[in-house]
Amino acid sequence: MVRPKKHLGQHFLRDENIARKIIASLSEDTVNIVEVGPGTGVLSKYLLENPRLNPYFFEIDHEAAEYLLRNFPVMAGKLTEQDFLEADLSIIPIPFTVIGNFPYNISTQILFRVLEFRNAIPEVVGMFQKEVAERIASPPGSKKYGILSVLMKAWYDTEYLFTVNESVFYPPPNVKSAVIRLKRNQTKQLDCDENLFFTVVKTAFNQRRKTLRNALKGLMQKGYSTSPGLSDLLDKRAERLTVAEFVFLTQSLKG
């Protein structure tokens, strides 16, 4: 069978054992599930075979969509030939899990899309470039801890599951990959202005070598409180703060 061409930075998984391992990482209560970028269908066939699951598929590449419908006719009515980042997700019954061998060059955007729909998405199981996966799962204090780490941990428990070698893809990438699992935590709403929280986190890490007192100077000029403990936080660098401390910092800057 002729494979669709590589598109959007995607490398097609061809190892059945890895595919089964990814599927096995799903929670046992998963029902509705969305696969982003099914490509050649190596994950899709296991989703379709499982009678418990109600799968939906988003594939932006026309050639790949034709290939999938030709080889998996049962996908008809379940496959949407559209960009997941722009798709109308209201067609999906909630809650729904997100799964995929995510194209490397849009994997971060996929996660921001997940954050938009965080109250509808209890779980994500996905393949990422290893460096990105480590960044998401890294704890405070790690050099890999960054914007994505904090924003995802604010609403999801993050877990690095396993590393995947280059040889299991077609064509093989130049880097290793990894599978991670994100499970929605109990946070319904942060105890701060969430828009300001995003701004504080991004501003802090964009100048991560500076102390927060210097990195956030532009925000502090608008006026901030003198909450107990604030001074100690401002003397730290962004990579040292937990999500809770970023929330406290945001509250203080808001005054």
Description:
The chain is α/β, with parallel strands linked by helices and 255 residues long. The chain folds into two domains: 12-184, Rossmann fold; 194-254, Orthogonal Bundle (Helicase, Ruva Protein, domain 3), CATH 1.10.8.100. It is built from eleven helices and nine strands. It has helices at residues 16-24, 44-49, 62-71, 107-116, 130-137, 147-155, 194-206, 212-215, 217-220, 230-234, 243-254, and strands at 12-13, 32-36, 54-58, 79-80, 97-101, 123-129, 156-164, 169-170, 177-184. The strands form two sheets. Strands 4-3-2-5-6-9-7 form a seven-stranded mixed sheet. A two-stranded antiparallel ribbon has the order 1-8. Helix 7 packs across helix 11. It is elongated. The termini are far apart.
Strand content: 15-25%
Largest sheet: 7 strands, mixed
Residue-averaged pLDDT, rounded?
92
What strand line-up does the widest sheet have? 4-3-2-5-6-9-7
What is the count of DSSP helices, taking H or I runs of 4+ residues? 11
Order of helices and strands: EHEHEHEEHEHHEEEHHHHH
Q: Considering DSSP H and I runs of 4 or more, what fraction of the residues is helical? A: 25-40%
**Secondary structure: number of strands:** 9
Parts with pLDDT < 50 across at least 5 consecutive residues: none
Taken together, the total number of domains comes to 2
The CATH architecture classification of the largest domain is: 3-Layer(aba) Sandwich
Rg, Cα atoms, Å: 20 Å
Say what oligomer this is. single chain
| CATH homologous superfamily grouping of the largest domain | Vaccinia Virus protein VP39
Q: Any idea of the CATH topology of the largest domain?
A: Rossmann fold
For the record, give the distance between the C-alpha atoms at the N and C termini, rounded to a whole number.
62 Å
CATH class of the largest domain: Alpha Beta
Q: Categorize the overall geometry.
A: elongated
Structural class based on helices, strands and sheet pairing: alpha/beta
